[in-house]
Amino acid sequence: xKTILCALLCALPALAANDDSFLxxxxxxxxxxxxxxxxxxLLVRDGKIVGIGAKLSAPKGVRIIxxxxxxxxxxxxxxATEMGLTEIGAVRExxxxxxxxxxxxxxRAAIAVNPASEHIPVTRANGITSVVTLPQGSMxxxxxxxxxxxxxxxxxxxxxxxxxxxxxFPIIQGSRGRSFRAGQTTYAESKKTYxxxxxxxxxxxxxxxxxxxxxxxxGTSFITDLKFEAMLPLLDGKIPLVVxxxxxxxxxxxxxxxxxxxxxxxxxxxEEAWKVAADLKSRNIPVxxxxxxxxxxxxxxxxxxxxxxxxxxxxxxxxxxxxSFDTSFSRNLPYQAxxxxxxxxxxxxxxxxxxxxxxxxxxxADKIGSIAxxxxxxxxxxxxxxxETQTQVKQLFIKGKPVDLDNKQKQLYQKYLNRP
Amino acid sequence: xxxxxxxxxxxAAPLAAGTATVIQNAKVLTVTKGxxxxxVLVRDGKIAEMGEKxxxxxxxxxxxxxxxxxxxxxxDCHSHIAAESINEGSxxxxxxxGIEDVLNPxxxxxxxxxxxxxxxxxxxxxxxxxxxxxxxxxxxxWGKSAKEMxxxxxxxxxxxxxxxxxxxxxxxxxxxxxGAANLRYPATRMGVExxxxxxxxxxxxxxxAWSDYRAKVARGERTLPPPRDLKLEPLVEVLEGxxxxxxxxxxxxxxxxxxxxxxxxxxxxxxxxHVLEGYKVAKEIKEHGAGVSTFSDWWAYKVExxxxxxxxxxxxxRKGLIVSVNSDSAELMRHLNTEAAKAMKYGGLDxxxxxxxxxxxxxxxxxxxxxxxxxxxxxDADLVIYDKHPLSNFAKVEKVLIDGxxxxxxxxxxEERPGLEIRRKALLDKEKEAQKERRPxxxxxxxxxxx
Lengths: 420, 451
Hints:
A: 12 helices, B: Urease, subunit C, domain 1, 8-stranded mixed β-sheet
């Protein structure tokens, strides 16, 4: 008997070598890309979705997860964070977001992600499985990374270590980003700085183009330059340029810039993108919006301007995704999307904007963003609509592996709830 | 009898002509008296009657709220809107200054807060000093003067602040104002305690000097009054329970410290604000009797917020404290209803407990619960109509009434936009014309948008 048991136990790991194979049964499957499947089954093998439908049978050795009455969604994607690059906002030592200098295309966010950050388990506990983490800084800030919110090392976590190049588009602004006031930076001074920055940027791109040609020519005098080298995937159209711009004027300038340089552009922030919707649409420029829960940028804007813009852009045919533009608030990503729903964004579009749309924008829709055969099983199992605050995330899978939903905050909760 | 009624009506008429309003067919979430589907009759700014059926008085305005939700106006126990300045950060005790003196009734944040269902806010001095300035409770009566916005009869407050903010001003660049480094005592939590103790020690002496003087006068003795001290006067009011202490705090050690100092000098902390580690010392807070007003889920923006948990509000409710959820932000203030919903997700409060966090509980903390915070006959008609359940992320505010008057109406807001746009364009064109006459590159000074 003992031998038989041992044989069974020993055989089991061989059959289910990884815990990334399972049959999830009886849940409402919200595929996002196609219709919902009530009482559906989802078969996952080796981390990938291999079957979606009703009454699937589990292959031998594949464990069954009963999920009757629950809902399955693709894991959510936060398209703009500083995840892993910052821990405590006010403590400089914990921040690796912002390097010195205006032109740093060679910097890679992926390699500075701290896998032990407490923000990671806190964020994923609310159903977010992937985030884009962006370097900050003046002008060319570096390369953003698309990362999974689980992994032993930053290498494990990387989905796309070079997801995009980040550009803070130069603007004319007063001290500390505020309006112009007496005794501080004048408009004329700021305009001069702005013009210098634009010139610097254009010259840098021109030099990068020359470098690209020189490299292609394979001349004997060619010397490797890491900054220009980092520009090549961008110039070759392999990665997009994420341009952070808020107001209409820099957005328009950025569009012209990207067009001139023949770059694939993603607009980030874009508080006044609604003014440029037609141009964004005609050039297929997607927008990473957010946060939605913010004040209008102008005093005389309608009070609901940030809430209504996502619906307006979607109606105009512009592809949108949401970003928290934060780290500690990344977990509230679904509520950023939800806030636009009562003001005109259709519910299914809101859900897409935190799942499939970002996957498409970042070029990983073959792997994540919806529940479809062949994609990674990045899944959240909930007791309701993830866009509603009261909904609880019951289970989470990244590449089919169950992810621990515990975190520092839940531990403190239990500890002090039970304090005598 | 009838003649008397007419006489009374005639007397009231100039003040309250046509002020009866009936909100009907609403799902009414009273917060304190359960939930029902029916009507609320508002007369002379007060809730006069409520129930499944209410007789509509002749000439009353009827608001049909079929399929909609009615809740009491939201109360924000921690705000800085409508204040032209927030911090008098140059001294460690700034009790001589007050928000009341710097109110700006035209701050657009007031209207935006209204549009988010807020009808009352506790407007506080900043957190640069261990003992900060005086605070004021406002109703969001947009369009009225600063004085008319003040909540009549509300107990005035004073801001205290513990931890990183007051001690940060003691070293390095002053975060509360531009310019050079500002060395100011205190620079540690030890110093923060000392500042508060010193101030109350002085206040006690000052109080004694005045009571001594009054006793002498009462005995008919001729004597000179002590010199007035505008810094100590508000602290004496605190000692006498006439002014509420709203204390900004984070860590459990500093919370406990303040409670002990208050015990020592014999006064009460009315509310602990932020109180992100309140969940760790809920027992001690309860013993002292302080209310707690916290964020729903802010954390990790500074070291003292690293142990902040979104379960804070729920734990403190379960431990028997009066808990409110506040904004401290002109933005967050616009959706305190869904901030409250987070305490359902994190810690499992029920709907009424969650709504209480932003209605009756802050009202109790500010001792204005006899007037606002729930839908009850006799209370102020401060009411919010939502199109969906107010704890849903998909709800939006349709109308907001204060004292029975409609101060926000989404329909009207939408109607007015084209006209406002025309006026805005006209002003811009005028400005462009004027600019042509100025030197190029020279821009008019702008105050910028509210911070």
